[in-house]
Amino acid sequence: MTEVYDKDVMGRSQIKKSGEGGRVGADRKKSAPEMRRTRAIGGGKTQAIAPYKDRKDIGQQRQASTRVQQPTQPLGSAADAQKAAAKAERKKAAQARAAAKKSGSSVPAAKKTPTASQLLSKKTPAKSVERTPHKASGLTRTERQKLQRTGDRIIKDVRSGKNKPASAYQK
User: I need a labelling partner for 37 at 20 to 30 A (CA). Which of 31, 56, 84, 127 fits?
Assistant: First the structure.
């Protein structure tokens, strides 16, 4: 005897068919003709890129430690104690307000804490910085790069101990 499922139940069911290769869920990647990714091949021409490669970890469960943020401090640390003290203080203040409201007396003034918009609305005056333009070298961009790379090569040679010692190069 075969089992029969109601169509309504099948639509809502939590059991889903796993994809090929042990994937969880269906493969939603585009097929080769649907893909629009291209790469430059030179001469102002582009070429379609081969379909995506499958990930190496398909079908494997990932550890929770790699997916969920782990605690940064041990349980019962000073930070936890501080949080608990702050919570107790807030609770005490709320109870005092409730008691004052019930008795009809004036509610004790709460500490003024700025809202997020108030904190963000405060603008610190911009510091004026004396900017002096760079001295023009009179060299083009390519000439500057050539000079830079020559210096880098000399430093590399000196560090590696190849060719001449540092004293051999003129300043």
Answer: 56
What tokens were used for 93?
């203040």
What's phi and psi for 75, nearest 5 deg? -60, 145
Using an 8 Å Cβ cutoff, are 39 and 33 in contact?
no
Q: Cβ distance 54 to 21 under 8 Å?
A: yes
- CA distance to 38, 52, 72, per residue, from 27 (Å): 22, 12, 36
Report the alpha-carbon distance of residue 110 to residue 92 in Å, rounded: 12
Q: What is the pLDDT of residues 24-55, one digit of tens each?
A: 777 777 777 787 778 888 777 888 887 777 77
CA distance 151 to 171: 11
| 145-to-14, 139, 141, 152 alpha-carbon distances in Å | 62, 10, 6, 10
Q: How many residues does the chain have?
A: 171
Token digits for 70? 């782990």
Q: Tell me the pLDDT tens digit for each residue of 110-158.
A: 677 777 777 777 677 777 878 776 666 777 888 889 999 998 988 888 8
